[in-house]
Hints:
The chain is an alpha+beta fold. It has one helix at about 1-25; strands at about 45-50, 60-70, 75-85, 90-95, 100, 110-115, 130-135.
Amino acid sequence: MKIKWILIIFMILIIGVGTYFAFFQNQPPIVKTKEITLSVKPAPDFTLTTNTSHIDTFINRTIGFAVTVTSVDEFAGDISFEVTGLSPEFLISYFPGQSLTLGPDSPRGISVEIIVPDNVTIIGDYTILVTATSTIYN
Length: 138
């Protein structure tokens, strides 16, 4: 019986010592975390404005208007302009040109000049569409 108790005590000691070493040898990991905020914004864009929405004129006259583009959400890129809606007899010119490069800092613009020819068949109302297009931007 004495040997039985010695074996039981010996087993308890072995289990206790093994548990002690297992606990200190397998310490829990150190874990650190850091939160990051992700802000998703709209894609860069631009606005298009003109200095008028209606023009009255006569045949054999020249009219003009300004077109302005303004960066939205840090848009930067090349923009081309087109005026449509007129019959081929009208002559359309763009100053300083038909395209520009817009940066995120300030508005840019062009002037559009339309020469109304001396032709009675063109009398009437026209809906002019000003289109600004950008295919390459930031």
